[in-house]
Amino acid sequence: MKRILLVLVLFASLAVQAQDSLSTIARQALQNYKTLKPGKSKFMVRGFFFTGFDAVDVEGTTDFGFIGGGFSPVLLYKQSDRLFFEAELEGEYGGDGFELGLGYANASFILNKYVTVRAGQFLLPFGTFTEKLHPAWINRSVNAPLGFGHDGIAPSSDIGLELRGAFYTGPLKLNYQVYVVNGPQIKDGSIEEDEAGMLKFGYMRDNNKDKTVGGRLGIFPFSNSMMEVGFSTMIGKVGTEGSRYKDVTANLYAVDFSLVKDLNFMKSVVDIKGQYNYSQISSAEYLDFEDSLGGFYSFDNISNGYYAQLTVRPSLIENKFFRNLELVGRYSVLQTPEGALWEQNPTQITVGLNYWLDWRTVIKFGYQTTSGLGDHDSGETLTQDMFYFRWAMGF
Amino acid sequence: MKKIIIITSVIAVIVGSVLTVSSCKVSPRVSMKSGAQIWGENCIRCHNGVSPDAFSDAEWEVAGMHMQLRANLTQEETRKVVEFLQSAN
What we know:
The structure holds 2 protein chains of 2 kinds. Helices cover 11% and strands 53% of the residues of chain A. Chain A is mostly beta strands. In chain A, strand 18 and strand 19 form a beta hairpin. The termini of chain A are far apart. Chain B has one domain (2-88). The longest helix of chain B is centred in the N-terminal third of the chain and has 21 residues, at 2-22. At the A-B interface, strand 1, strand 2, helix 2, strand 6 and strand 7 of A face helix 1 and helix 4 of B.
């Protein structure tokens, strides 16, 4: 009997000890969970990187080499269900070494389910390319279409205030952005005489008291969101206050189109995108630096350009290698004002073959030819051929 | 003065539109969509479909909010997509 009691006491003692140990483990696990459990504020770093190789031939003179590439981290911060912050740094190896710039930095407040207020520097919703399609791992082609980027006619980013949102009316989905920003500025030729009358975008400090207003309306005609048509505008004074260009205004318009569709008979996903840009700047006289008498010249300051892009990816076939291939073709045109020193009318054709290593990493091979009246540095008709290789990664 | 009139008009149009839209009914075909369907229809408009295991549940909340703002998803669409990606993660 004593033995039985002894065994029971021993068993009870071991059970208590085991329970204590389990409680300790549970407490530690709870502590670890509390330590690792994310709070309401959440931070995330995303972005993209690209590098590559170009072989460029301009009128018989060939140049080739690796390009340094670009690195653009995007910082995302969700402070609450209503507050959000995003910023993009743009790092790129240029002619003067590594250059770092600010792509955008803005804060958003979700006012209600139809309206979000955004303030700061943001990518302008002028069409879709700049705001949604420019990152190297999203852009199926090797570079931006004609008319975008440096010396382009489409605005990139600006500082100001924006309202945006999306909603359904029956099966129809609409989205809108309306903004007030400092606006672009007109170049008077005092710094670069051959750019007189051109617009400068993304300038940080306003040059007049007038603000530029703009917006975009996007319409999804079908309930499956496969097609979108967008209309954009941007209107404002662009001349510097007190200067002879103080009353010069710019009216910019764009129409964009997107169609992404599974075509089962081709076992492929087809993606068609395009954008037409139109820029009208009121007439002004610019100093003719080649005229010793200090005369002026003028021109009809209207520019336009567009691109159309088709990609086909056989995503629906079973062979893993072939379903990661993607064919891309793009046609792009730019026409700047006749009579301006920056007059050009290039046409560009790009054909490429992409291979997707995963959903956000792509290797691009292709050929691009650009011909027409060249840039304002040369003023001559040029043909440029380029073979390219790019490795782009989103993260 | 002209700018103020334009801005005021634009804001009035937005407020009016919002009030009008809020009284509209979303079609059942749209409201019955699952998170997976919305994910499949919307991500590929710009980039390839995202694998659910690409990010953690907490990161999907941030990425979802980012896409709500960048890709103009509605709040309801964003909620469904994030819930789908978190459940499939």
